[in-house]
Amino acid sequence: MQRQPLVIANWKMNGSRSLVEKMTVELREHDEVLDRISVVICPPAVLLPAWQDAVFYDHVHLGAQDISEHASGAHTGEHSLSLLTEAGVDYVLIGHSERRQYYGEDEERIRAKVQAALSFNEKPVTVVLCVGETASQRQQEQTYAVVEQQLQSALDGVSEQQSKQIVIAYEPVWAIGTGQTASPELAQQVHGFIRQWLTKKFRVSGSRMHILYGGSLKADNAEALFAEADIDGGLIGGASLDPEEFLAICSAAQTRSK
Ligand SMILES: O=C[C@H](O)COP(=O)(O)O
């Protein structure tokens, strides 16, 4: 099953207008790295307008790092889908482990956000649902149970048709920002498990869904990870802040599409 590689940059709470400029200059100068792949940039929300002016290719999209499950109202500090899509967003990250860990996002809230994104009718948005186990869950051999439970809960009630709007990002929490990347074999084992789960739930549509790897993905380990059967691209944090390194990761993703 040929799935066009997808590379997502998650800037988290980093970046600046000048980094947007630097990055767009690099992308313009080396636009061949964008052939045959899709790229999504998730900057902090206040930098979306700077990116919106700079987005110049059909296959470079903008994404939000989080959304509110509410349509509008008294929710200080939050961003609705209307506001985000007006700022050019096509993709939304939901359930990132930092939101789960530091901002108390529980399964119920994550499910509400997934539902809000899927039922948003002003513009279609793609949900990037993040799942993954902590170090202690892995040590206790709970990886598959944790991932399955996260998928089951967040995708409860999602139809086969709606699954076309969903991407899964497997991000083992112990690998995020630690430099401890999962080996390609280990990542593939979990991706394979996720693929099986998706195909069981969504049938043929499950075999078409993208499953991305995230967690200390860098230029020097990207190609080996992207060579695995069910690793369709990456969700990149730290390395997406360095234009050269990010472009090298995009170019590694291209090798998958050959
Ligand atoms: O969203 C991105 C992930 O949390 C990975 O972050 P990282 O590449 O800095 O480890």
Please give a handful of descriptors for the protein shown.
single chain, 258 residues, TIM Barrel, binds glyceraldehyde-3-phosphate, 11 helices, alpha/beta
Strand content: 15-25%
Average pLDDT metric: 95
Estimate percent helicity.
40-55%
Overall tally of domains: 1
CATH architecture: Alpha-Beta Barrel
Q: State the end-to-end CA separation.
A: 13 Å
* Quaternary structure of the protein: single chain
Largest sheet: 8 strands, parallel, barrel
Number of helices: 11
Task: Supply the CATH superfamily name.
Answer: Aldolase class I
Counting helices, strands and paired strands, the structural category is: alpha/beta
**Morphology call:** globular
Name of the CATH class: Alpha Beta
Low-confidence stretches: none
The CATH topology assignment is: TIM Barrel
Give helix and strand order, one letter per element, not per position. Answer: EHEHEHEHHEHHEHHEHEH
Number of strands: 8
User: Which hetero compounds are present in the coordinates?
Assistant: glyceraldehyde-3-phosphate
* Global Rg: 17 Å
